[in-house]
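2024-03-11 09:14:02 INFO worker-7 job=invfold-0412 stage=load source=structure_tokens
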């Protein structure tokens, strides 16, 4: 089974990483709500009528490749984005977005 290294030398299984990332995303949502009273896109500010995603500033893949897997489940590496901003950031479906 694949394991990934943390900066302290600890190795984590992918299933553990996935669980910790889910917890970090839930924590990020809670923190933003507790601080502001609502959740919103940190890029464009939209807050209602849209889905919000927890986007990694540095990708999970990059964190694992650099041996800093713990950064993947650090709330400081997660930004709340609406789907449109998330797609623009990750350069996904740009053609679809630009045509509308």
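2024-03-11 09:14:09 INFO worker-7 stage=emit residues=100
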């Amino acid at each position: 089974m694949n394991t990934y290294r943390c900066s302290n030398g600890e190795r984590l299984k992918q299933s553990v990483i996935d669980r910790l990332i889910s917890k970090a995303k839930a924590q990020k949502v809670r923190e933003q709500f507790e601080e502001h009273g609502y959740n919103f896109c940190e890029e464009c500010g939209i807050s209602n009528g849209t889905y919000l995603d927890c986007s990694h500033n540095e990708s999970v893949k990059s964190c694992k490749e650099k041996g800093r897997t713990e950064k993947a489940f650090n709330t400081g590496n997660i930004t709340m984005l609406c789907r449109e901003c998330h797609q623009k950031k990750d350069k996904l479906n740009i053609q679809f977005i630009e045509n509308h």
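2024-03-11 09:14:09 INFO worker-7 stage=report msg="Residues 96-100 have pLDDT under 50 and may be disordered."
2024-03-11 09:14:10 INFO worker-7 job finished
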